[in-house]
Write the structure tokens for this entry.
Amino acid sequence: MLLFFSPRAMMAHPFRRLATTTTTHTQTTTSMRLERDWQRRRRFSHYVASFVFLSRGRRENSKTAAHARRCGAFGSKSEGNEILESDDDDDEERPNNAWELFYKTHGTKFFRDRHYLKKSFEKDLILTSDDETSSSRDGDDDALLRKEVLEIGVGVGNALFPLLRANPNGLRFHAADVSETAIEQLKLHEEYDETKIVNAFVVNAGEKGCFGGGDYREEEEEGGRGGSQVSIKDESFDVVLMCFFLSALTDEEIRNCLTEVRRVLRKGGVALVRDYADDDAKNDLSEFYPGKKVVMEEEREAYRRKDGTLARFFSERQMMEMFTRVGFKKREEKEGSTVKRVVFTQTNRKKNIEIGRAFLEGRFVK
């Protein structure tokens, strides 16, 4: 058999080096096999190159989309906060707060149940038969004797459900959160019981008159816009519980919230708080996005996380001042307010290191 190749073809192909003279059948078979191998390698290299190119494009698009979601969900830029303002005002499905996006992303799987609260706030949340309760004060003999508790920042119930398990007949909860998704997940929990959780509602507790108090309530009654659709009467609760909630608010939002908390508490009622202390290991720029301090009015430790949520860290003095400023009892008064620091070591198994954790637990008396 005679095989003829043009010089150009022989130069372009590494395996076309056969003589232009007569060749044996064995040589021809070897040439064809080499040709097929070369074509397979060529197709494979094209496939790999295409895959890398498309993957890189998807990653870039994902980053762009993620940035757009952050911009849309978390609003305008604050000083020291590099999350930019979105120009798209037509996106009706865009979440209006960072915590809504947080619970849409993580659902019920992010936080662990806070069983330690049973010990931390045993005096006020774990009742005995000698405790006087709201039902006995109201003269309702048929109702279970329970304390009325409002939890602000309830999330999906990581504090509420452990407390109800420990004291099923002693507490009656009202649950509030800024995230509609969180409240929906709370109501879907297998332990959700309307006789024990009588109300679960969405509210921005950082707004002025968030629970319907003050001048905002009067504006609503006169047909004005008002600051909240929630209306809670004065002195409605024995306890207001806030776990890692105040650290998610600005200074102005904290004042707005605590003013309303004091209003809805009964005389002698208490606000119970657990939150981050200023010497906690997570008070570290490397843990947060974009790594710059968010400058607050009083220059407390505050950072914006990658997901847009705020992180605050307090000293005992700062936390006490937040409450006494709006009228809660001072530490030195009889049966006054108290704040204590809880310190322990936590093992990070993923990084195989031990870190020092520090939290504040406060009991503030009206």
